[in-house]
Recover the amino acids of this structure.
């Protein structure tokens, strides 16, 4: 076992530690301003911890800290803890973990503003978690392998960004953001993955991409947004048997299901509030159509709009709107309404309230549409 420990009260501290072999443990503890710590481990069962700042309740500054941990081998463990002071230059800390091997675990924890974190893991059964507080923070997690687990948490962190990218099968990605003006991007290439995004606040944006550059099958995607002016977007390319569930509560929200290209996909959207807008596109994936997909949209509120396209056979579209002045079509991207090209498709539209409108177009054989307005 090799232990390297550093502790300093002064400013402009620098620590660099390299270890080769098995069962290494490295601990670096820095307080001050403009701290830099670099840890490199090459071997098995490595364990590295970098602490920058006072975690004992004091107000010792650790502003403008830089921490980097690189591990190559099996069963690696890496942790970076950074806490900025409340005075001085609040330009933020930078922290990164890079792990290559199997069974890797990476944890980034930062407090107080404008932090930037990166976790990169290449191997199997990876585990990554990034936790940030205060505004203007960024966290990016990239995982290549199977059975990966990624969690990004930004609480009390307005105007922050979270990015998760996973390649492989049976992965799990979760983003939890609290505050206004946050953005989230999750990209998945593989099968049997689970994506869960929760945002609480106004003017937030979330985008999930399934199989943008290849197939992505049997995935589950869950969205939840509470607040106003939020944007929700999902893209699925050459993707079959996926389940997308989105919930928006608030006003002036926007959802868009783009390029759901594949078969046997299910898209379920629930919106509560006024002046919400949504579009969806179940389109052809060259060289075949998108068949046997299910679109289920439920809207409660006033002056909401929805429109979408289906190109394929045996698709089922259900739209339920409860409120006043809701519209299916004729506005917002002018798709216009429920537009279907294909055979044996089924459309059911139900609107309850005053001044609602529905415009639809169907081309093909054996299609069925039912519109009920009360």
């Amino acid at each position: 076992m090799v232990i390297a420990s550093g502790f300093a009260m002064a400013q402009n501290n620098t620590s660099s530690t390299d270890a080769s072999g098995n069962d290494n443990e490295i601990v670096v503890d820095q307080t001050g301003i403009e701290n830099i710590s670099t840890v490199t481990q090459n071997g098995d069962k490595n364990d590295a911890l970098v602490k920058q700042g006072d975690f004992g309740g004091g107000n010792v500054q650790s502003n403008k800290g830089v921490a980097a941990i690189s591990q190559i081998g099996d069963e690696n463990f890496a942790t970076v803890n950074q806490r900025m002071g409340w005075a001085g230059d609040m330009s933020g800390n930078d922290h990164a973990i890079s792990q290559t091997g199997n069974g890797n675990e990476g944890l980034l924890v930062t407090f107080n503003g404008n932090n930037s974190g990166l976790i990169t893991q290449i191997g199997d059964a990876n585990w990554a978690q990034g936790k940030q507080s205060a505004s203007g923070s960024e966290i990016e997690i990239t995982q290549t392998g199977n059975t990966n687990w990624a969690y990004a948490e930004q609480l009390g962190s307005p105007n922050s960004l979270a990015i998760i990218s996973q390649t492989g099968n049976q992965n799990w990605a979760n983003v939890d953001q609290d505050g206004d003006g946050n953005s989230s991007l999750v990209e998945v290439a593989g099968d049997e993955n689970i994506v869960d995004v929760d945002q609480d606040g106004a003017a937030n944006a979330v985008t999930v991409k399934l199989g943008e550059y290849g197939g992505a099958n049997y995935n589950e995607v869950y969205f939840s947004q509470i607040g106003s002016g939020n944007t929700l977007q999902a893209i699925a390319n050459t993707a079959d048997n996926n389940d997308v569930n989105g919930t928006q509560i608030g006003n002036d929200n926007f959802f868009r299901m783009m390029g759901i290209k594949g078969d046997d996909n299910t898209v379920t959207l629930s919106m509560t509030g006024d002046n919400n807008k949504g579009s969806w596109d179940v389109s052809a994936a060259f060289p075949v159509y998108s068949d046997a997909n299910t679109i289920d949209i439920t809207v409660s509120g006033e002056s909401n709009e929805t429109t979408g396209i289906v190109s394929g056979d045996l698709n089922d579209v259900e739209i339920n709107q409860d409120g006043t002045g809701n519209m299916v079509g004729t506005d917002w991207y002018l798709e216009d309404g429920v537009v279907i090209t294909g055979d044996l498709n089924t459309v059911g539209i139900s609107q309850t309230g005053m001044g609602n409108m529905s415009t639809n177009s169907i081309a093909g054989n054996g299609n069925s549409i039912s519109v009920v307005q009360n």
Remarks:
- Residues 22 and 346 are 62 Å apart (CA to CA).
- The chain has a mean pLDDT of 84.
- The chain has no helices and 32 strands.
- The radius of gyration is 24 Å.
